[in-house]
Sequence to fold (403 residues):
Amino acid sequence: MRILFVATPESVHTARWIGQLGGQGWDVHLFPTNDAPPHAALTGVTFHAFSGARPSGADPGLRVKGPYPLRRGGYVLQLAARQVFPRRMARDARLASAVRRIRPDIVHSLGVQLAAYPTLEAKRAFGEGFPPWLVSSWGNDLYLLGRLAEHAPKIEAVLSACEYFTADCERDNALAREHGFRGETFPALPGAGGLDIELAKRLRTPGPTSARRVVALKGYQSWYGRALDGLRAVEMCADVLEGYTLVVYFANPDVAVAAELMSQRTGIKVELFPSGSYEESLRLHGRARVSVGVSISDGLPLSTVEAALMGSFPVQTDTSCVGERLRDGVGTLLVPPDDIGSIAAALRRALTDDELVDRAAGINFRQIAGTMSREAVTPRAVEMYEKIYAARRAEGGGGARHN
Fold:
């Protein structure tokens, strides 16, 4: 089987999703949706870099192909080609050309806005005979952007053109139908693939969650992230945070400033957690009593799932799909994103109810290990691709010819 992924190359989600397919003996390709270097964990895939030069720091298992196999001068050639042949060098035209050249059995776009939009343009440029097209929804793709006038028509166009759809929660499978999708959906799977349960066990701080003295706050403040509201909720709980450290991860500059000022007002110790490795992120949640995520929209946040796996009690806004995986009031507390008082009340409960957080740690670990581990997710992902491949062959599409 030959699969062509269309995705952001620098994303850990891309690297982990593709990585879980290693060992299947499939011919896997990645067409990047931007010019960013590939994630260091991306391996076992043919990377169709525009310049053809091997990116520095790339995994040895990453195969690189492109029209300009030069270590130096590739960027200059790229700029010149774009000036002389602007239409031919457009990303959608290059993707259509890659599909003709690679002849994949399946084209899989990881993300609607980031990957499916350019894939739709490539399909239009390609014409008849475009391979079966699978689209994955990530995070805000449908739940938030599907309600915006700028994106709704584009989303509907994508969902009218693809044959298969998958998401990280059943909510978004249903939303795809509302946006006009008439093809086949697959049961929800984590967008980054399955979790490494044994690694989580090794990195998790021993002892009960109630003994931990760290609160982790996701620091996104953006068109959908509301970390500043989470920070205000923390400040409202200052009286029960003596001896605790607030660790803000993925902090935007304005969140970092607000956290420092809040620390000066309240005496709460604050640390900023820089972007680090996957293992470092797990260790953070593995030493946290509570992990807080506030946003007006999300799918199944990987950080929340990792927090629950590592024994930290998640306080998460109800605009996500966390409620599909963790039981509200038992394994998590779900709160509205626009009610700081409710967020603070949930945080206060998680900080003072030892029985709640200790019991949740065991329940959440068993739930995630049973349904979202690599051992649980990878066979379902493989089955999804095999089903699409079998349908293609049954319709007379045949298989890709391996050279």
Notes: The first helix runs from residue 12 to 19.
